[in-house]
User: Fold this.
Amino acid sequence: MTGLDSSMPPPAAPPEPAPAAERDPTLGEQASYLSMVWVQLKKNRISLWGVWCIVLLVALAILAPLISLSQPFYFSAEGVTHYPFVPSLFNRLLFENAVDIFFNLALVLSPLYLAVVLGARKRWGARFARIKLRLVLGMALAHVVLASLMLPASLFGLKNPLYFTEKVENYTARVLEYEAKGKTYDAVFPLRRFGYRDTDPEQSVAPPSARHWLGTDYEGRDVFARMLYGTRISLTIGLVAVMIYVSIGIVLGALAGYYGRWVDNWISRLIEVMICFPSFFLILTIAALIEKRSIFHVMLIIGFTGWTGVARLIRAEFLKQTSLDYVQAARALGLSEARIIFRHILPNAVAPVLVSATFGIAAAILIESSLAFLGVGDPSVASWGETLNTGRTEHKLWLVLAPGFAIFFVVSVFNLVGEGLRDALDPRLRR
Assistant:
């Protein structure tokens, strides 16, 4: 036979590889360290429950004005119509604290952020998985910058157009007045008509009722509203304070572990000196010395006193990593020391810090509540510790149980997530 038999079927073509969208995101080139950690974390049901509880807390912090605020979405009476809700979110006479401005801005811009994410996902398709983290971080940075621009009353000697002040009208009192006089009005309020700063001396230390779900404090302020807005303070304290001391600890620990010798000696002695002081009493002393305390003073105090543990973790990891072959290869290629430290070694040494940071958020929330309980916190914010102290001084059980349970719940949730994250980051426990 001189040629191929035409009756023979052609050889079967090799099977085509599955599309990227159908592959397991934790396998092959599409796998990423974060995706593998997330897959491992999802296997721990208790920790996953903790993650969703944290998501719920963040959602409550953002949506707080939709749940409880004295300013209506719409108010019409005597032929005049007002829409005071959105302007009130940025009225510094109503929300004077920067934390409230940050979360209120997130509430207003959340539809825009969602549209950007959905649009990017539709445009980039399968490649969206590789850019979503950078996109979210970019939007978060832009949000922080915009919120920061809204804080000062003046910029470079000029009046800040983003700084908004207007006389706060008590629409709840107007509604009660119209109802007493039989006048007609039309209004749409949030779920509850109480802000966390609204006082009513006639309702001082009132027990829980249909009007005040968790009662009131000694100034007649609604405890439920203060608990709701206190979620913002606790989450912000935990996140910002931990970011501060993690940044300090990473830099100092990396320098000590990478350079060694006298650099390591000086930084190690500094760590030992800081450890000698009882951390809570050091924080308490510094806070007491500040005459006009704000929530940012509390964040800075916790951040600048809590970095020693992170520095020791990073130092130990760097001492181990610097002797490995990939570091020697990076040095042989002539890479700069900053690039070797922060682009090559740090990603391989940061895993223990993630676990420490998660536990640190719970610790920072507990410290802030303790400072407020002792009367050295920020008196202008709705702190759970302040409500707890009111319950102690007034001997009212409901003022103790509500903030006590909230502190216990949030601290427990972050600790559960920290334990799950510790197991997920351990390669020996992967299955």
Remarks:
- The chain has 16 helices and five strands.
- Residues 18-31 have pLDDT under 50 and may be disordered.
- The beta strands are 74-77, 80-82, 154-155, 158-159, 186-188.
